[in-house]
Amino acid sequence: MFEDAPIDSLLGQVRGYDFESLPVVETGFCRVEAIVALDRVMRAAQAEQVAQVAALYDERVHLMGLGQGDPGLSVIGELGMARNIGPTAAGTQLGLALGLKRLPKVFELFKTGVISEATARVVVNETCSLSVDDFPIADAALADKIPGLTTVRARQAAARIVIGIDAEAARVRAQKARADAHVSMHPDADGMATLRVHGPAEQIVATFNALDTWARGLRATGDPRSRGKIMSQTLVERVLGISSADAADVEVQVVMDADTVFNHGDTPADLVGYGPIAPDVAEEIIAKARHRWARRFLTDPVDGTLLARDARRRRYGGPINAYVRARDRRCRQPGCDCTIRDTDHIIDFQLGGETTADNGQGLCKRSHSIKHQPGWTVTSKGKATIWRTPTGHEYRSDPPPVLPRDDNPDHLRQ
Ligand SMILES: [Zn+2]
After folding, report:
1. DSSP conformation class of 384
2. Which residue in 104, 181, 217, 409 has a CA-CA distance of 20 to 30 Å to 227?
3. What's the 338 CA to ligand 1 centre distance in angstroms?
4. Domain limits of the chain?
5. Are 190 and 278 in contact (CB under 8 A)?
């Protein structure tokens, strides 16, 4: 029912449609039609956004000139802050934008809502190793094949097309993919976290099977722990080279407010590098930390940010470094939530910037590079930093309240 409506007016048509006036049996039919039509609207909007990203990139290349910085990095930074997304997501969008420029027919399917962004992305990934001359052939073949396919099937179809055109390019791509291995950490609820390992399938399968076999063996001889718990603890023990996962020799930084520490209050604590945890969980972690480094930080009773410490030196290190990282917790570039890798002088040391907490900010490697791209400036304004991009857009970054006052249960109950 909405198939013939032009995309530009579809949203208005769906919003204005009088679903309630229909008999109940027909309403469901019409709603499904509307849901499908809205998919076209969303895809068209996503494609338009991607086209704008590609155009922005071209302008950055033009403005920066050769050897004057990295236009891709600049665009990733600008996108991340404008859209409030992380650099990985911004980088993925830029990669899609650049890839679709080489596949105009596929791009047209995306713009008209025939294929989803996920499908466009897998097609771009599968074809990335083709030579310039082969792109038009692949583009025509893909435009013919992928409409109506699921994302998984579109990926398979694209892989077959690439192998058919250039088997060597497909081999190079597979080799490149297998060289890309990484490990990442993701915080979960209740003081737990997930370790994710991405690597060649046979190595990951072998690792999993070894843990599984070990755990089943221990269970068979009477170990009362669950199979999952044995696997998790064995992994920790073998990686850290210790005999018990509970004896892990790590530095624990827990931030708690004084009321919670002394009066058993219920303000959530903060495990640095992870996030909020229940005060009881914090006590348990501290209790287990008998042989370990433990740092205690005080929070500002008014706004919940960490109180400053004094230290002056050329480089951030020792307590002041730990302090800045505990205060910022995640990369301070607006929109970026990556792990902090560098403690940066907001005003360069060479330009008179002091090695103080106020002039320091925790950044990930990528944001640190973005900050030094042509046309970018970062200045401080009290506790906040102001990021200014080449377009003149400004984004403010405040240190997060480590123990947000508004999250205090007493505030929430009111
Ligand atoms: Zn960052």
Report:
1. E
2. 181
3. 5
4. 7-179, 183-247, 318-397
5. yes
